[in-house]
Specification:
Length: about 270
Amino acid sequence: MNHPSVWIQELTWQEVETYLAHDKVALVPIGSTEQHGPAGVLGVDSYVAITLAEDTATRTGVLCTPPIWFGDSSHHSGFPGTISIRTETLVALVRDVCRSLARHGFTRIVLINGHKGSNLPALVTAVRSLHEEELPQVMFAVADPLHLARSAAPTIKETNEHHCGELELSHVHHRFPGMVRMDRLTGAGVDFGAVFGGFVGDDLFGPAPDGVEIMWTGAEQRAFAPTGSFSSSLGVTEEKGEAYHEHIVARLCELVEWMRGYDGPIGAGR
Ligand SMILES: [Zn+2]
């Protein structure tokens, strides 16, 4: 790596121009500011995205944009500190960031999401039409632990993982010591069967029922999950966090190397 930081906000414009003379990959970390139960700080999802982007960038020599700290979190808005932007706002924000990157020659853009299924509809919506209608020369990828840890998560975790579970809190505990209150871990969870009638699964990384998506408001969430925790966090350990992190970063590094050398039909427009 011959630039002084992987973060664009810590570089000068000339250092970015030098980078673009030989590379074209940008990583865009996107998280949320939302309640993560009694033990997790509000920034958990953003810290997840930031550390995945930073370590992938450091190992592959690519650049990251400043993180987007806000996401689609209205369903957590019953808890103080949660700051949510509307789905439409997130779509518009991501499109503008990508337009700016593409204008200067970043033609391989990876959105690294730390907020799992709640941000994904907006992120996919943002870049699908952008690629079709405006930026056919850019290859976009949307990356999320939900899919990148699919094979490893069941071997690392010991309990069902939904919101505030042992995997995401172990991850942040490993990379940002102090951001998980280890004396506030809880076994409190949501009785998914009682609340969602068996149509919503309680394990994002495990077997799921034939199901549907059910919307709920911030007030409704506070009623069925009074502590904010959906999954037990009693099993949080640094070792689990490290295994989870290393698995995802390794896969992201493979993605970057593939995109960097890619010469196929996608992103060849114009
Ligand atoms: Zn989260």
